[in-house]
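Lecture 7 notes: from sequence to structure.
We start with the chain below.
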Amino acid sequence: MSTQKDVCVAVTRRIFLPVVSLIIVGMLTASCSLTFSNSDAITVPDTGEASPYPSTIVVTNVDGTVTNIDVTLFEISSSAASDLDILLVGPTGASVVLMSDVGEVALDVTLTLDDDAETSLPDSATPLTSGTFKPTNASDAGPKCTETEDVFPDPAPAGPYSTMLAAFNGTDPNGTWSLYVIDDCAGDSSSIDGGWSLGIVAETTVDAEPPILTVPDNITVNATSPKGAVVTFAATATDDASTPTVECVPPSGST
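Predicted structure tokens for the same chain:
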């Protein structure tokens, strides 16, 4: 003989505040692009350090950190450009070889060195022409010299040196930028008659304050079905610079 017993239980469900998470759409940043110049000529002897050594640019009042750097050398003339070794040193000590052992003759050439350029500078058998190029260290002493290692005399820092301007990314641009130029092979003199310029893109965070999150108090409701009860609530966030997105788990309107 079988029997069936029906048991009915009245359920009261206490619903507490859901877990609320705040998703920030994006921290607001500001980017500025600035150019600083030193138009004084740089004279390079047939061997040794240029005059001045180094040539400097002082950067001040730039907010944020570096996100991109480019360098322009104006009016380069040389009967053997491959003799030129050029090193850029930033205020924090980061250092990049802009060019070394590249190009043959150069006549009133203006070069912009930029990591984003499509091509590198030509080898020591090809004349230099004006344009935008990647920083290039060919590690090639050229047809007349035997030196294969770039050595910049004091007060330049010792190597190793980077060959990408991205080495300056994340650094403070304010301070003295130094351009060290040497001729590493006797027999030819050179000049950078128009001096040089430094293009800096710096980025700073404008919105450093966190958003303000507004959430409801704890919620208590009685179950209206075996699944529980529908609970609705509102959680909001405000921010001075951006519009945050609020996600709640479980979401409003859940049982």
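Points to note: The radius of gyration is 32 Å. Residues 1-26 have pLDDT under 50 and may be disordered.
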